Amino acid sequence: MVRKKIIAGNWKMNKTQQQAKQLIEEICIAVKGSTSDIVICTPFTNLGLAVQLTKNTNISVGAQNMHFEDSGAFTGEVSAEMLTEIGAEYVIIGHSERRQYFGETDETVNKKVITALSKGLIPIVCCGESLEQRENGITNEVVRTQIKIAFNSINVDLAKKVIIAYEPIWAIGTGKTATCEQANEVCSAIRSVIHELYDNDTATACRIQYGGSMNAGNAAQLLSMSDIDGGLIGGASLKAADFAVITNYKP
Q1: Is residue 223 one of the residues assigned to a domain?
Q2: Domain assignment present for 164
C-alpha cells in the first residue's frame, strides 16, 4: 500500500494576522502542484483568516491545541467545537512543548484524541523521547507507552484517521536531526504498536510523520524512508519556498 504523504506546518507562536496573510498567500501559490496532503497549523488568532484564504486550494487548516471538554471554566482554552465551527479540520495534540511547558500528560493526550475524533477533527498525535531517554536506550519503550495510552479506548475505524508525528525532543528547534535510519526505525516501531493494538490493515494504513527539524535540505532523504509518511514542520513552514520544497517531494 502506498500511503499519501501528509505535510503539516506547525507555526507555533508566530505571525500576526497581517504577516499570516502574506505567508498563506505565498504558500498557496508555492504548493499548488503538490500531490501531498498539506495542512497549516496556525495560532488560534489566525485560524479564521487561514480558512478563508485557503478556500478552494489544496491546503487544509489545523489548530495547535484544544481542550478535551466541550465547555467550562477553563480560562484561555479552546474547544473542539470552536475549532470545527471556524473551519479547522486538524489539531495537533501532545506536542512536546505542550508537555514540557504546559503540563500535558499521556492521559490528557488520550482525552483530547477521543474528543477530537468525536467532533470530526483529525488529530496529529505527537510522541517522542528526550536526549536522556535516547542515550539510556529506552526510546522504543517511551514511544510505545505514549502511543498505547494515546490510542486507549479508540476503535479501529477512528484509529485509522489519526496521524502520528514522531518528534524526538532533542531534535526540535535545535537544528539537530535524527538520521534517516534512526527516524525510520522509530516510525517502524510505532507502526508495530498500532499492529499490536489493532491489526495489519490499520498499521499499514496509519500515516506517521517525522517532526524533528525536517527542512528543505533533508526532507527528500527522510521522506524516502519506508515508514516515514510526511513531516510535522516547524521553522521551515514559516518560509513559503522551504515549505514548498518539502510538500512538493516526489519519490
Answers
A1: yes
A2: yes
- Domain span at residue 15? 6-68+76-247
Asked whether the whole model's pTM tops 0.90, one would answer yes
Instruction: Identify the CA nearest to 39 among candidates 209, 218, 217, 251.
Output: 209
Q: How many domains does the chain have?
A: 1
Active site residues: 95, 167
C-alpha dihedral (178, 107, 161, 195), degrees to nearest 10: 70
- Does the pLDDT at position 43 exceed 80? yes
Q: Helices 106-118 and 139-150: crossing angle, nearest 10°?
A: 40
Task: Kindly give, in sequence order, each residue whose CB lies less than 8 Å from that of residue 107, ignoring residues fewer than 6 positions away.
Answer: 149
CB 235 within 8 A of CB 190: no
The C-alpha cell of 45 is what? 488568532
Provide the pLDDT for residue 171.
83
Q: 107, 148 in Cβ contact below 8 A?
A: no
Predicted confidence (pLDDT) per residue in 115-157, tens digit? 999 999 999 999 999 989 998 999 999 999 999 999 999 999 9
1 within domain boundaries: no
Q: Convert the pLDDT of each residue in 2-29 to its tens digit.
A: 899 999 999 999 999 999 999 999 999 9
The closest of 142, 122, 114, 118 to 130, measured between CA atoms, is 142
DSSP class per residue in 130-152: -HHHHHTT-HHHHHHHHHHHHTT
Q: Look at residues 121, 122, 141 and name the one whose alpha carbon lies nearest to residue 133.
A: 141
Kindly report the CATH number assigned to the domain that includes residue 243.
Answer: 3.20.20.70
